[in-house]
Design goal:
This protein is an alpha/beta fold. It has 2 domains: 70 residues, no CATH class; 196 residues, Vaccinia Virus protein VP39 (Rossmann fold, 3-Layer(aba) Sandwich), CATH 3.40.50.150. The chain contains 11 helices and 9 strands. Strands 5-4-3-6-7-9-8 form a 7-stranded mixed β-sheet, sandwiched between helices. Helix 7 links the parallel strand 4 and strand 5. The longest helix has 23 residues.
């Protein structure tokens, strides 16, 4: 009993001190991060209140982890994993870290899809979060993920295989170029994408983002940041079967621009903007028309 009380005291002190340090470093959720770091240092997935033993080297390990987070290294990179939907994804330096707001894309895909989701394409796959979630939640599905960066493509393949062994495939390619292997995948039931979309003059302020997320995964190209999203829209029009759906994430100020880009390209009979859980415009929803509409006939709605 005395030993367990000593462990509890060490944990209370560790939580208090780590929370203080992370708060002084400017973190928004210092207590949550402190608990995650302490559990990682202790090598456990249990709640801290259930620990009755701490491993040798716990204090030194916690000090190293805390120092990294104080320098605003993302918590996910420190832990080596990131939660996404029902999954715990592998993450690694140099690859865009999946965000909670992107999770809603899966719900939108299922809401707006008709005729099944046997074949799904994830464009600008990054860590493979969207494709892995499809494999996990739609057991009959197969996923083709497309990613330009070789490090991210390897990580995407790893996460796809863990989520749905043998049902996911990764193609390393540049969406701005012609990709015969991708074109041959048509027709597909859905296209998902969280592409880079930040304009060049809208530099993120958070150190975790600007110093650790690869700039290729942040800035979408061109004065408006929409070169890559336009390529996603063009590929979706080529790949989707009639009635298939594109769900593409964008910045909360880009709803109209995304709909306009899809309408200008043509090939869709429904264009709408879906909000995220905070009510901010976040996703383009575009349904492939049975036939390419005549110019000006696209219906825009919100």
């Amino acid at each position: 009993m005395r030993h367990e009380l000593a462990v509890r005291e060490r944990l209370r002190n560790a939580l208090s001190e780590t929370t203080r340090r992370l708060g002084e470093a400017g973190l928004a959720s210092p207590s949550v991060d402190a608990r995650a770091l302490i559990a990682h240092a202790a090598g456990t997935e249990k709640p801290l209140v259930m620990l009755d033993e701490l491993p040798p080297g716990f204090d030194a390990r916690l000090e190293r982890l805390t120092a990294r987070r104080e320098q605003r290294e993302p918590l996910q990179l420190i832990l080596g994993r990131a939660p996404f939907r029902r999954l715990m994804l592998a993450v690694r330096p140099g690859v865009f870290i999946p965000r909670p707001e992107t999770e809603l894309a899966l719900d939108l895909m299922r809401e707006h899809s008709s005729g099944g989701l046997a074949q799904v394409v994830d464009l600008c796959a990054g860590s493979g979060a969207l494709g892995a979630a499809v494999l996990d939640e739609v057991p009959a599905s197969r996923v083709l993920s497309v990613e330009i960066d070789p490090i991210a493509a390897d990580l995407s393949a790893e996460n796809l295989e863990l989520a749905g062994p043998g049902r996911g495939r990764v193609l390393q390619a540049d969406l701005m170029a012609e990709i015969p292997e991708l074109a041959a995948a048509a027709p597909v039931d859905a296209v998902l994408s969280n592409p880079p979309y930040i304009p060049p003059d809208a530099v993120p302020r958070d150190p975790e983002v600007i110093e650790h997320d690869p700039h290729r995964a942040l800035f979408g190209g061109g004065e408006d940041g929409f070169e890559v999203p336009r390529a996603v829209i063009a590929w979706a029009a080529r790949l989707l079967r009639p009635g298939g759906v594109l769900i593409m994430e964008h910045a909360d100020v880009q709803g109209a621009a995304a709909r306009d880009a899809a309408a200008e390209h043509g090939g869709f009979d429904l264009l709408t903007t879906a909000p995220d859980l905070t009510g901010r415009d976040r996703f383009l929803v575009a349904r492939r028309a049975p036939e390419a509409p005549t110019p000006g006939s696209e219906r825009l709605s919100r």
